[in-house]
Amino acid sequence: LQVKNVFCMKAKEGRKKSIRALVAIGNGKGAAGFAMGKAGDRMNALRKAKNKAIRCLHFIELYQNHTIYHDITVKFKSTAIRMKKQNKGYGLRCHRAIITICKLIGIKDMYAKVSGSKNLINITRALFKGLTNQETHQQLANQKSLYVVEFREEQGPLPIVVALPEGTVREDPEPEDEVPDTKLEWSEVKEAQGMKKSPWAN
Question: How much is the pTM?
Answer without folding.
Answer: 0.79
